[in-house]
Amino acid sequence: MVATDLEGASRRARQADAARARGESWGPLHGLPLTLKDSWEVVGMPATSGVRTWSHHRPQRHADAVQRLVDAGAIPFGKTNLPALAGEWQSFNKVHGTTNNPWDLTRTPGGSSGGAAAAVAAGLSPVELGSDIGGSIRIPAHFCGVFGHKPTHGILPMRGHLPGPPGTQSEPDLAVGGPLARSARDLQLLMDVLAGARDDEVGWRLQLPPPVSGDLAELRVAVWLDDPMAPLEACVRAVLDGAIGRLVDAGLRARPADRRLDEVMEPYVRLLAAVVGAGLPRTVVRRIRRSLPLLRLAWRLRPPESRATPSRYNSLGPSPSAAGLPASPLLGSYLEGVLQTHADWLRVNERRNRLMASWARWFEDVDVLLMPVAPWAAVPHAQQGQVITRSIEVPSGTRPYVDHLMWVGPATVLGLPATSVPVGRTEGGLPVGLQVVCPRFADRSCLAVAAEIERVLGGFTAPPSSS
């Protein structure tokens, strides 16, 4: 926790008690204390987004989503840590330092909503408001063993979320805000409060469809646990196989999903690079412009057999390993995405819309897709080097750091709702989550299925460090 307003929270708590004594209710969250990711603007506390540039920023109004929580009776009392500009899968920055995972203090709780997930897991806060553009809700939930929901894109207001800089009025592409909690029911409670059009968008009203049946035997379920682009670590695969097996024993009828990561990851990374690249300093952009031709040349000079193995590198740009960088198929696409013109972006956006239409047709025969959140469980702290070129050590060896993106990418680029549900722990005692993905606007179905999985598998377990 990086900031508190205990005096203001205590004052509001006394007011909440007095209102209850008069028989008044402020709403479904009356008197509920909660914390908020430090990317959200909250009156009475700084909003830094983990950078010194905004270390003295004191908002004069709540972010729209925060205001909805307050209007429903909630009492914000603290802010939680994140990486600088919410741009990492670990939560550390030069303003507030490093956040540890409550299951293993030598490991990260994830990012960018890592402080949020750690606070909920450790019992410091009952619920949290995070945000997600590259798995920033789902991966911390998976690493810390809590529940996290990435809503359908566009159904929760983002005004007052940093970045962009304070005062930004536009809504970001790909990014969403969403809750973290210790149960699926609490996620639904917060979504009932949070979802809806911005207050100044008076021309439309959100009406989410009712959930599909929570009965496992009645659901049409597809399971996707294999992809050559992002093989799962054996310890994670074992937990997910065991979880699916127990759900089948409880009545789940599942079939394999005929989906591929390579059809969505390249447009996703290009669109993500456009969002991130808009905030990069000009010096960084110039450096990327100089380095990209060298990466392309290195790719062309590689022997044909090395270009074909593994095949996942072929369609996603130059191989950085040829230039002495970690072998991620995403790096070339990301760098090109930073430099793309608006015309380039429009072409990629059309690809996205075609994929969205294709997946909508696929979901006509499927109620829910079950898939991993990440290839691995919580990783040790690894803060050296740049995000896009960093490697990490996992049980199978060295892996590209940006492979965190792989399994969260489809729901993000397609704007789908996705819920991370804790389903077990590895032999080493680290939590593992299962991702529940549904068609656009079927958020209630995601949460209903998450609740049923919670009922069968047991849901949240408190880490030893919180007891």
Give an account of the 3D structure:
This protein has 467 residues and is of the alpha/beta class. The chain folds into 2 domains: 3-257 and 370-381 and 416-466, Amidase signature (AS) domain (Amidase signature (AS) enzymes), CATH 3.90.1300.10; 262-348, no CATH class. The chain has helices at 6-21, 64-71, 114-121, 138-144, 184-194, 234-249, 262-277, 282-301, 304-307, 331-339, 342-362, 409-413, 443-457; strands spanning 3-4, 33-37, 75-80, 92-93, 97-98, 127-132, 147-150, 176-181, 221-223, 254-256, 368-372, 391-394, 397-400, 418-425, 431-437. Helix 8 crosses helix 10 (331-339).
Summary?
By secondary structure, the chain is α/β, with parallel strands linked by helices.
What string, H for helix and E for strand, traces the elements in order?
EHEHEEEHEHEEHEHEHHHHHEEEHEEH
Q: Report the mean per-residue pLDDT as an integer.
A: 91
Q: In percent, how much strand structure appears in the residues?
A: 5-15%
Radius of gyration using CA atoms only: 21 Å
Task: Determine and state the CATH class of the largest domain.
Answer: Alpha Beta
The biggest sheet amounts to: 11 strands, mixed
The number of helical segments is 13
Quote the distance from N terminus to C terminus.
Answer: 18 Å
Query: Which bin fits the share of residues in helices?
Result: 25-40%
In CATH, the homologous superfamily of the largest domain goes by the name Amidase signature (AS) domain
What ranges have pLDDT less than 50 throughout 5 or more consecutive residues? Answer: 303-326
Count of structural domains: 2
Q: Would you give the CATH topology of the largest domain?
A: Amidase signature (AS) enzymes
The coarse overall form would be: globular
* Class inferred from helices and paired strands: alpha/beta
